[in-house]
Amino acid sequence: MHQLEFHKRALKTLRKIPKDRAGQIVAKLEEFTEWTDPTEHPDVKVMRGEWEGAWRLRIGEYRAIFELSEIEGEEVALLIYVTKIGTRGDIY
User: Fold this and answer.
1) pLDDT tens digits, residue range 6-32?
2) Which of 11, 23, 54, 76 gives 47 a disulfide partner, CB atoms 3.0 to 4.6 angstroms apart?
3) What is the CATH number of the domain that holds 13?
4) Residue 62 to residue 27: CA distance in whole angstroms
5) pTM of the entire predicted model
């Protein structure tokens, strides 16, 4: 299982989103940590341009932009660091 962390900007956005929708977003991100290779999830795409090096997860009309890094001392575990959450029109 991978570790999930949120940037304070992403947490602030989650507080502003309606509770039912925010719950869906968090549930999808937690489910996402169970994947052996999160980059193979069908709703994940690699980012380009100013977001190069980041990935995005599509959750309905919302997008979660995250970075992946290996956790030292763990063979397989990754840190999934969510930097930004928003609708497609607001996030890019």
Assistant:
1) 999 999 999 999 999 999 999 999 988
2) 54
3) 3.30.2310.20
4) 13
5) 0.88
